[in-house]
Amino acid sequence: MEEYLKKIKRRIFLCRGWIAVCAAAVIILGELSGRGILLGGRTRTDFAVRYASALLFGEIIACFFLIHQNKRLLQNREKAQEQCRTEYDELRNMIYDKSGGFPVSCLIFLFANGAIVLSFVDMAAFYTAVSALAAALLFKCFAHLYYRRKYGL
Amino acid sequence: MKNHIRELRKTKRISQEELAQAVGTTRQTITSIEIGKYTASLPLAYKISRYFEMTIEEVFDFSETEES
User: Fold this and answer.
1) The pTM is what?
2) CA atoms within 13 A on the CB side of A132
3) CB contact under 8 A, A86 and B26
């Protein structure tokens, strides 16, 4: 249990760090987008601008939500124990692994955030990253739903 | 794989949630094991058997698996 509480604290620390990164990215992207520095005169499409805003603000909101949730777990040991059981549940972990697991989650994270950087370099690369992201998300969702039904979760 | 968890649970008069808490898993996993949709891992099967003070063979029915 103590190990799980340490994990929660690490998670809160990571979320705070990621909020700082996202906030810095919002400021930097705001500065760059008006000048067309990286695109050499070309501009980003409306979709790319909206995608970056939605993703960054979405990540910030998600991180605040996660911090709030995890802080509540730190205050309530019973809830933390229940959450620990859920997170270490073997059926849930097996379904997570079968639907791509950690590697696919990492890919989704990389595609999602890498697309923002790519939008400043090449719009074709940006659309490729977004398509790959959509494909990875669809795969993960369908696989997850399929295995949940299969194992009756 | 068939098992006798439901019967053993009813004999002991405990709920799925109580069994789940005792063996460190969730109620949904116990449900899936009971209805035979999911085969428990060896450590979980061992924990469940120990909880009922029985051997794994007494709780889980391996005969069907051996035949197929």
Assistant:
1) 0.83
2) 18
3) yes
